[in-house]
Amino acid sequence: MGLDDKIKNAAQDVAGKAKEATGKSTDNERLEAEGHKDQTAANVKQAGENVKDAFK
């Protein structure tokens, strides 16, 4: 996996955590769910990159 991909995935995860925290603190369920979705997407991308690295 390239460093660029790692940075993008980490940034998406951090942004998702921030959205989720903001949603919780403001009782905005939509924002909280969106943050959780962003974190999940980042984790899935990371797992896919790890699989690709394993077969190199």
Report on this model:
With 56 residues, this protein is mainly α. It is built from 2 helices and no strands. It has helices at residues 3-25, 29-54. Helix 1 runs antiparallel to helix 2. Residues 1-56 are annotated as: Disordered. It holds the Pfam family CsbD. Residues 16-39 have a biased composition (Basic and acidic residues). It comes from Microbacterium thalli. This is CsbD family protein.
For the residues shown, what is the average pLDDT? 91
- Let me know the number of strands: 0
Structural class category: mainly alpha
Largest beta-sheet details:
none
| Helix proportion range | over 70%
Assembly level: single chain
Radius of gyration: 13 Å
Globular, elongated, flat, extended or rod-shaped: what is the shape? elongated
Tell me the β content: under 5%
**Low-pLDDT stretches:** none
Q: Order of SSEs, N→C?
A: HH
* Distance between the amino and carboxyl termini: 10 Å
Please count the helical segments.
Answer: 2
